[in-house]
Amino acid sequence: MRFTPLGDNALMLEVGDVIDEPTHRRVQEAWRVLAAAPLPGVTELVPAYTTVTLFYDPVLAVQAGAPGDDIFEWLVARAKERLKNPPKMEKPKGRTVDIPVCYGGEFGPDLGLVAKQAKLSPEEVIKRHTKPEYLVYLVGFAPGFPYLGGLPKELETPRHAKPRMVVPPGSVGIGGAQTGIYPLATPGGWNLIGRTPEKIFRPAEHPPVLLRAGDRVKFKAITAEEFAKWGAKP
Amino acid sequence: MGGEAVIHVLKPGLLTTVQDLGRPGYQQYGVVVGGALDGFAARVANLVVGNPDNAAVLELAQTGPELRFDRETLVAWCGADFDAMIGQERLPPDRAVRVAAGQTISFGFARSGLRAWLAVAGGIDVPLVMGSRSTYRRAGIGGHEGRPLKAGDDLKTLATSGWAEHLLASLRTSGKPATTWTVRPGVMGRPAATGVVRAMRGPECAGFTPEAQRQFFSADWTATKEADRMGVRLAGPVLERRQAGDMVSSAVNAGVVQVPAAGQPIVLLPSRQSVGGYPRLAVVATVDLPRIAQLRPGDKVRFEEINLTVAHALYLARERDLHRVRTGLARLTG
Prior knowledge:
The complex is a heterodimer. Chain A is 25% helix and 28% strand. By secondary structure, chain A is an alpha+beta fold. Chain B has two domains: 6-185, no CATH class; 196-315, Cyclophilin-like (Cyclophilin, Beta Barrel), CATH 2.40.100.10. Chain B contains five helices and 21 strands.
């Protein structure tokens, strides 16, 4: 466990140095413990693959008793103390979220390309992409964008050398060893294999995103007809 | 408490957006903090017109807007050296100015610097989205319809404070268009020398060659055209790492100096994304970050290394100065 300053209003707790599930669980645990009752002066926590970053307001920290010339060590001592004596918390129930995806066609213009480089049929790519339970390691890059782990090795496909100017929201893509869903219309270099009718970013809801760090994701293939009718009341 | 003013946008300016102090608390969902790129200047402008710190202001960039006010109110602006007019008169910065009903204020070009923040008594009235009124352009939310202002837009303001009404009445009676006192955000605390930005070593600093570390903190860097509300790319010596290779993505912060493989640094601004995968060579002190937000293509900047204790002292000194001004202004009309 290592604490490093990230400027004068954030500090980073590192609990590992590789992307794997045990490290992810340690990140989640530290995040939960630190979020259960915010430390004095700490305003926001941001978990990533191997780190939890604590954002703080130096004025609030000093008002809470931190010495003005040693705010960092004061906060680190409190974070360590909290992590050593975590409050009683319920074990979080893991969520598995099904994501409907219409593969191929206009929604997945690169399905053929992914199939070709994997030496599989498009149907087989869909079968293998819908098989795993992916883990949401973190959410970032864009609002609600999940960094997913668990893509079958044979489906790994290099990014396009020239990114598309606009990728439609809901597009499901493969970029190198990663797979994910574009929440907003943004430029993007991933191979697009399908699209989900589900909204990934939901600014009017709380939380404002469909997927959160720690969730499991299962893609379910749907037809173009199901896509068109998705969300409409039967 | 005063009522609402309607502001008619006659000319929108190059990139005028509604901003407050940002949208913290949602980075875990990938939502950027954003907000005024110089939050301190926005706070000062708000203070001068009797608003809470977090009231929504207009952020101006390069060429400012032309605005007509339906009713009498107070405005204040801080930031770059804009050519600003109220009717046929100069609209001075860093003080409260009375705008009469039907009057127009207009901002031309910024003569130096890039951005300014315009506060209107009461604050701009746009809906709160995830706790903030800041425009989040990429997601199309917040601010005025999630986008920069356009000609023909009408903006409302929230109720003004009693303090602002009192100041407005005294300006009206005295016949003076503006207060004689000024509050300048750039002189508070302990400002760095011109062209200098103070910064700390970042988490991956040791991953750069000693030469690159020395170069970063000594070279003259030039701001490039690749600049927006997310960050500013600088041009200068190529910063080499000891070892190539990707790092594991982790949180970034406003002020983080990240260095992609090409070796040219990017200084991140408040609308930065929440996580990044480039090595973080340095982090700019919060008090000096506004200088990065003011860089125009071709402007030079040099980084001076300070440690975290000094950065905190600078931050606390600036807050103490602001607190003193706040106390002084409260007495003014109390």
